[in-house]
Here is the input.
Amino acid sequence: MSDPKSSNQESSIPRRLNEKNVGQSTLSIWGGEQEHELYERATQVPVVHSVSYTYKDIDTWQNVALEKEPGHIYSRNTNPTVRAFEDKVKELEGAEAATSFSSGMAAISNVLGTFLKPGDRVVSIKDSYGGTNKIFNDFLPPLNIEVTLCNTVDYEAIEAEIIKGCKILYLETPTNPTIKIMDIKRLAAAAKKVDALVVVDNTFATPINQNPLALGADIVLHSASKYLGGHADALGGVICGSKVLVKQVYHYREINGATLSPMDAYSFIRGMKTLKLRVERQNDNAMTMALWLEKHPMVEQVNYPGLESHANHDVAKSQMRGYGGMLSFSVKGGLDAIKIFLPKLKYAHMAANLGCVETVVGPPVTTSHVECSVEERAAAGIPEGLVRYSAGIEDIADLITDMEQALEYLC
Ligand SMILES: *Cc1c(COP(=O)(O)O)cnc(C)c1O
Here is the structure.
């Protein structure tokens, strides 16, 4: 501030947010936007539906292409709308850099594709997202990449596998659909000892509730299709980390082509302005619903990290600011009971997604573990009578009344 040169620069960009102590709501709203030239004084980020960008002279064009000057060349690489979205997430994750993808799975496969070579080893968990689990089991082994999947909450066993040496430690917390919690700080510390890259899928927690980079992760990633967008109307993924790491993944993605579309980026920017409001409400709704379900006679078990009964409540408490909008619970009577009571809910979609403003419910049989056999689900500790519940932002009194009348059909 005392240097006149830098204060001149500041006055030309009045709303720069790279100051400390800016709150998460402010970041969700202004993050990424003040860095961009707004189109003809429009207050909102424009949707730039342009494949390419034109130049009047070859030298400038070449300088932009060589990244010596800021600008865009071709939208598979960069696009102004897409960049505003990336910068918004970057601010919320407290990262140096971010890049985005056409889906959450593209983010995951591009991160793995960037850093893994034949002969490398990955350590991860059995409870990772279904698509991620498929990559680990079906797509990496034929490339001569060894994958070791550990029991999710056996931290000691995971540490023992890490210490044997690995290129990537891949974590996800909370997990789907049994809402297990992994100790990011503890496992990242073990990974540092063997120079492994720590990647964390933060989709369920959102940056509002958890910032894995601050806990020792190298790369944090999201399916933006869930909480970031929040309205179940756009597909995308995003990763954040150091400039050096993100640049490598960006390069892999710009060549392989899993680019986020500007219209979806715009939906995410718009959705993210209410991210904190939504997530705080979802945290509250999930907590109240979990406490209510725990007392219901037809409910066998409730999995929610905010409950004292959760096996890793203490870890959740120390690494999360809120416990999230996702819970699961099992009912007496298994899948047959679920088939009776779930369709009776008036204020919940029975659907495969999660993290949106509407409450969404579904059993693992049709969502996360649709491709598994009954035996495989049992081996993974997933009861057939489990319901995954993504709390929306409706009034909690209505959600509980609704749940009560639906569960009546089982009594
Ligand atoms: C949905 C989801 C993904 C995959 O994201 P898509 O956008 O559907 O490709 C990855 N991880 C988690 C935890 C998810 O919930």
